Amino acid sequence: MTPMNPLPLPGCAPTPLAHYLKALGVLRLLSEQLPPDLPRPRGCWQGETFILHSSLDRAGLEKFFLHDYRPTPILAPWNGGSGFFEGDQQNGISALAASDALRFQNFREGVDAARSALARLKLTEKPEKENKDALLQLCRSIFPGHTLEWLDAALVLTGDGPKFPPLLGTGGNDGRLEFTNNFMQRLVELFDPATGQPAPAASPLLAGSLFSEPVRGLSDNAIGQFFPHAAGGANSSSGFDAKSLVNPWDFILMLEGALLFGAAAVKRLESAGPGELAYPFSVRPSGFGYASGSDADTAARCELWAPLWENPASLPELRAVLGEGRARLPDRAARDGFEFTRAVASLGVDRGLSAFQRYSFAPRNGLAFFATPLDRVHVRRRPLRTLGAALGKPRVAPRTPCGARRRPRPPAGPRRPRRLRVHPRRRQPRRGPRAVGLPTLQL
C-alpha cells in the first residue's frame, strides 16, 4: 500500500481568501487528475497552514503541476472583455484555442463550444439582457461536461432569470475585472501554448505559491476581490500608491478551488414560489462580532463563512460538506452573520469542522469589492444548546378542535359593583427593624 505523506503547504492559509481557495484547488486537482492506481489525497488545516496528505512528496507535487496539470475550461462568453469579442484582449484565448498540447485539449473543446453558441445566436458583441439569457441557456445545453462545474459555480438559471453567486461576482467578473480572460492570460505566462511545457519561471513561481518562498517575477496584474493585500492602489504601501503584485499560480489555483463552491437553485417544500439561489455558507452581512463592526458594514455584498477542519478529509467528503452548507436554526435557515453564529455550532461539530473563517465582500470603489477577513469562529460542543436543539420547543396543549362538544357555561348572575377604599396610615407592630406603615388597598 502506498504511504500517505503529510506535506505542509505554507502558501495555503485560511486568509486571505485567495490562499484558502488555492488549498481547495490543490486538493481538487490532485483528486481528479492523479493516476487511478494512486490513493486519493486528503487535506486538513493545522493552525494557519494547509496539510496535504498524499502519496507525493514536494518534488512529486511540483512535477504534477508543471507537467501533468490540465487546466479546467473557465470561460464566460456572455461577459464583455472575455476574449470572444472584437476589442477584447485575445492573446490568451487565441493561443490556447490554437494549441495542440494535450493538457489544453479540454480548453480547446470549451472555446469551440462557446464560439459555436455565439455563432448560433449571431452575437458579435457583448449581449444585452434578453440575448444574454438565451446565450446562458444555450451554453448550459452544449458545453462539454468538464465545463459544467464552472457554470455551476458562476451562475444558476432560475425562473426569474440567471442568478450570480457572490464568490465569482456577476458571472465571472468583478466590476471591470474579467476573471476568465485573466485566467487564460496567466496560463500563457506559465506554459508554452504550442507544446504545453512549463516556462522557465513556472517552477520558482510555483514554489513561491505553494511553499511561500521568496520569488522574483511577480506580475503587475489584477487579482480582484480575493487578495486585498496584493491588489495595489492608494494606501497599499509606504507611499501614496502601489502596483499590484500577483503570482500567476495564485490566480490559477484560486479559481480552480472556487469551483467547489457550486451554487444551486433550491425550492422549499412549503413554498409555491420560484426557486431561490442557495450558495454554500453564504448569508447577508451583519456588522457585529469584530472590533470595527458597525451598521455601515451591512452595505457589503454578502458574508462567506469558509469552513476549516483538523482531520484529513477527502474531496468527496469536502463536497458533501459544501453541498449541504446551508446553516439552519431550529425553525428557519440562517439569514445573516448573527444567525449563522447561532447555527454554526451543531453543524460544525456534527461534520467534524473546527472553525469558520468569516469574510465580508465589502465595497471597495464603484462595482469592485474586497473579500475582507473579519474574524474566526471556533466550533465547540455546547451540551445545553445541543440538548435544547434536540428537545425543540416546549409542547403546548392542543386546542379543542372546531365542532367539539363543550360543557355549557352557567349563566352569569348580577355583578356587584366594587368600591376602592383606602384606609388611613396605621402604625404596624414593631418586630425587629421598625416597620413602615403603608396605605392598604382593599377591594
Tell me what you see in this structure.
The structure is a single chain. The protein has a four-stranded antiparallel β-sheet with strand order 1-3-2-14. The protein is of the alpha+beta class. A hairpin with a 2-residue loop joins strand 6 and strand 7. The chain has helices spanning 17-33, 58-68, 91-97, 105-120, 129-142, 148-154, 179-190, 202-211, 248-258, 315-323, 337-350, 383-391; strands at 5-9, 42-46, 49-54, 156-158, 161-163, 173-174, 177-178, 233-234, 241-242, 264-266, 276-278, 282-283, 303-309, 313-314, 353-365, 368-378, 421-422, 441-442. Helix 3 (91-97) crosses helix 7. The chain is built from twelve helices and 18 strands. It is globular. Helices cover 31% and strands 17% of the residues. The longest helix is centred in the N-terminal third of the chain and has 17 residues, at 17-33.
Q: Biggest sheet, strands in spatial order?
A: 1-3-2-14
Number of strands: 18
| Biggest beta-sheet profile | 4 strands, antiparallel
Q: Strand portion, in percent?
A: 15-25%
Helix content: 25-40%
> How large is the count of helical segments?
12
Structural class: alpha+beta
Shape: globular
SSE pattern = EHEEHHHHHEEEEHHEEHEEEEEHHEEHEE
- Please give the radius of gyration in angstroms: 30 Å
Distance between the termini: 90 Å
Q: Give the averaged pLDDT, no decimals.
A: 79
| Low-pLDDT regions | 267-276, 384-405, 432-443
